[in-house]
From TrEMBL:
Residues 55-99 form the FAR1 domain. It comes from the Eukaryota. Residues 1-33 are annotated as: Disordered. This is FAR1 domain-containing protein. It comes from Dipteronia dyeriana. PANTHER family: FAR-RED IMPAIRED RESPONSIVE (FAR1) FAMILY PROTEIN-RELATED, FAR1 DNA-BINDING DOMAIN PROTEIN. Residues 1-27 have a biased composition (Polar residues). Pfam families: FAR1 (PF03101).
């Protein structure tokens, strides 16, 4: 299936189709937890506060059977206000703690 506009009119690529549940022959290899639709993230979803985002994604993760962690956070230098926070699966990527422990074992 070609790249095309989704229900919200936003153009999506193949990866987004995989993540958001569009049909694909490769999707048979993916684990897709059964999550109540009210807990599923939606493209373009907005939140009133950063705390609301945290609560929503932690509830989604709990329903889907995994946990989250903050991968990236950025503050406004002038106001010290958080302007961006990126949540990921807690098992995504390499943990800093694992890297430090590995370095200590080598010496």
């Amino acid at each position: 299936m070609d790249d095309m506009n989704n229900e919200s009119g936003v153009q999506s690529n193949g990866l987004q189709k995989e993540l958001w549940g569009s049909s694909s022959s490769a999707s048979a290899d993916l684990y897709r937890p059964q999550v109540n639709p009210e807990y599923k993230p939606k493209l373009g979803q907005e939140f009133a506060s950063i705390d609301d985002v945290y609560e929503f994604y932690n509830q989604y993760a709990k329903e889907a059977g995994f946990s989250t962690r903050v991968n990236f956070s950025m503050k406004n230098k002038d106001t010290d206000e958080i302007v961006r926070k990126e949540y990921v699966c807690s098992k995504q990527g390499k943990s800093f703690v694992q890297e430090v422990v590995s370095e200590k074992k080598k010496t």
